[in-house]
Amino acid sequence: MLLIPIFVVFLFFLLSKIALHYFSKEISAEASKEECLKIASAYIRGNQPESAIYPLLLAIQKDEDDPFAHFLLAQVYYQTKVYSLARKECEKALLLDAQNKKAFDLLTRIRFEEAKANWDKGNLREAVSEFIYILNNTQDQKLIDSIAHLTGGKYKIKRLTNDLFSDDAPSFSHDGKKIIYHSDTNYFSEDYGLKKREVKKSRVFVMDLNGENKTSLSSNEKDDSSEQFARFSYDDKKIVYEKENQYPEQKNAAFNLDRDIFMKDLATGKVKRLTNNDTYDGLASFSPDDRRILFVCGHFGGGSSLFILNLDTGEKKGVFFKESFMEKIIRRQSRLVLPYCPSFSPHGKKILFHAGYKTRKIFLMDEVGENLKCLTQGQTDDFFPAFSPDGEKIVFVSNQQDKEDLSLVNLDGSNRTRLTYDGGEKRYPSFSPDGNFIVFAAKQKDQEDRYFEIYILNLKETIPKEKLIQRLQEMLKAFS
Hints:
Blueprint: H1 3-22, H2 33-45, H3 49-62, H4 67-79, H5 83-96, H6 101-121, H7 124-135, H8 141-150, E1 155-159, E2 167-172, E3 178-191, E4 196-208, E5 215-216, E6 227-232, E7 238-244, E8 259-265, E9 271-273, E10 281-286, E11 292-298, E12 304-310, E13 316-320, H9 323-330, E14 336-344, E15 350-357, E16 359-366, E17 373-374, E18 381-387, E19 393-400, E20 403-410, E21 417-418, E22 425-431, E23 437-443, E24 453-462, H10 465-479
Antiparallel strand pairs: 1-24, 2-3, 3-4, 4-5, 6-7, 7-8, 8-9, 10-11, 11-12, 12-13, 14-15, 15-16, 16-17, 18-19, 19-20, 20-21, 22-23, 23-24
């Protein structure tokens, strides 16, 4: 494998030498060093680095001890991504002028590119060692962020829960003071005829943004039915959640459970049942005016639709799973991903969800089910979308090469940006009302218990360089 890059470098060097002797319409071999440097600089400013190679080699031929000529040639090789030659010329420039800060900064960037190549090839020990050296020798925030991105992400992430239960599906209250989620904190012994087995049961909790003051909001702690996927109303006076009506006969049969949607008044504790079906009703959330509920409704045979329930009239209206979508996008039932994780836009006029065939994608449509648009493209598996408070961006989970990370995308599908790079399992991201935080559930790679826990990502605070170095040093220890 090493023969290919070595051959490329040799070929590039050979062509440069040939160009030095045979090709140049802009400059003659008799030109002075100053003329060579002037022409080379013009090529560099004109974004033609390849054309600058000949006059720079000619200038160095006339004066091998000119640090500026070596620096410019290093810059050209860097721009053309021939990093081994770039490093050689940069080190020569620094040997001739040890105080050349520009050359030192360029050498740091070159070393980063070489380390990144090692990282991509799986040579992690070499890459991490080089990253640590670079961090100890640079103040370039862009470079620091790039290393942070590669090795786990640049944004500061804090773990909020840490127990021996799975904590899942977090979201913020609309005053931004609380986080609501469900936790598998109860276990019951269930009789399936031949044997009994212990089955986990979920309860709804709220906690402060720092993970303190956990309080149960579940209606009956002695009830043996799970309560999950709770969301606050926009005035924070109520919550809506799903509750199972019977025990699951198969583990993880999410769309085969008999579940219905309930609403609880947080002041009075009064609970109202909103649906009463023999199939799955769940993943409910409020409209911005708190007068409607959007939810997933399951059907016999495995189908699923999105419905809106009017809380004033009790009218239930289906808004999604039209035949046109099945024919044009899903096409057939095998490997089918049903509409899931729906939510209203902040102005209440759009509906966001994920669905797809083979791979999940993020979709947007009008509240009446028209003008369906796919927001994510390509081969990645994109799921669990949520609106930003201004309705202009969407956070979601994307699976790339079996690595799940958080990403952002504009409402028109442009400017897709990756937020995390650690690759642990993630789900149900949700923005804070001020747009500064994202809360989500995750199983991190280095997490010992392997339960889902709640994490919060701060979009306004990046990881300090010292913490990043500490992260890499711990990684380096793990390689030994």
